[in-house]
Amino acid sequence: MTTYPFYQVDAFTHKPLGGNPCAILLETDGMDEATMLAIAKEMNLSETSFVSASEKADFRVRYFTPAEEIPLAGHPTIATTYALVQAGRIDLTGKLTKISLEMQVGPIDVEIIAQEGKVEKIVMTQMKPQFLGTHDAEKVMPVFDLTPDDVLDGTPIQTVSTGTPQLMIAVRDHDVLRHINMDHAAYAALRKEGDFFSPHLFCLGGATEVGHTFARHFGTPPDTMEDPFTGSATGGMAAYLWHHGLIESPTFVAEQGHWMGRPGQAMVEVVGPQEDIEAVKVGGATAGILKGELYLD
Fold it and tell me: Among 89, 171, 191, 207, whose CB has the most other CB atoms within 10 angstroms?
């Protein structure tokens, strides 16, 4: 019988059962993609992380939704790094420890901020953003039972990638976000002909006084219907907001998941000028809730 060390960690939250949960399997060298996908379906979370050795970075990580592998993901990176610390695979070097994780898109830098030997925050540096195709609001918005008038004035619906391409839809206010009702068949058709992995709808103004933005992120079965907190899309959203002049400061607090009962919060920093963004940093707290072994015959 083959066993794998296993953790489950809630990312972008200080408290257990908040933010976005991720399952992390260590020592998965040699595990094939079919097995990884089957385990991700078994876990039935937004993503499951598989850690193995790397010749290019400190560790190699692969992220699977219940439907497919994705090239980069935010909350699994935060959660996986925390699990590696808890498993004794990363030794903290004081207040700041730097590591790298090899993903499909290449190595990603990760910073671990600690106090008195305990992790306080984990920050990932996402890729230089790519501003991809723009999309017709009259075609996109009815998919979510919304109208073109619900789009924030003067903003394009655009695919942005900081490692994983996400469809950025800036809406007028929280009330628009509350009234989303996605037509899954229409969305499947839109995604099939589109250039994005999933849609990220957001507005200015947080769910709390601390936040500067609030978002909802959607999928279709077998993936989760709505993601509690989406780190990769938060990076793309930050690049979009800064590039299009919608925020005054390149550093802000992003919030997501509050209406799902899983409040999440990320500290975000856009690096570089609006016309030539170099990278986006997305970080947050973590809470481990499960530790054990996964058994496979």
Answer: 171
Q: Tell me the C-alpha distance between 94 and 87, whole Å.
A: 17
Structure tokens at 229: 């907190």
Q: Is 270 helix (H, G, I), strand (E, B) or coil?
A: strand
Token pair in block for residue 25: 């399997």
Instruction: Give me 285's structure tokens.
Output: 């707290």
> What is the C-alpha separation between 40 and 49, in angstroms, rounded?
8
CA 24, CA 11: separation in Å to the nearest integer?
12
The C-alpha angle 264, 266, 269, rounded to 5 degrees, equals 165
* Nearest by Cα to 106 from 166, 173, 55: 55
pLDDT at 13: 98
pLDDT of residue 221: 85
Q: Which residues in the chain land under pLDDT 70?
A: none
Token pair for residue 235?
């990076």
Domains and CATH numbers, the chain: 2-127+285-296 (3.10.310.10), 130-283 (3.10.310.10)
| Separation CA 124–CA 292 (nearest Å) | 26
The one-letter code for the residue type at 30 is G
CB 67 within 8 Å of CB 222: yes
For residues 235 and 237, give the distance between their C-alpha atoms in angstroms, rounded to a whole number.
5
42, 295 Cβ separation under 8 angstroms = no
Q: What are phi and psi of 291, to 5 degrees?
A: -150, 135
State residue 154's pLDDT score: 96
Cβ-based neighbours of 56, under 8 Å, separated by 6 or more: 100, 102, 106, 107
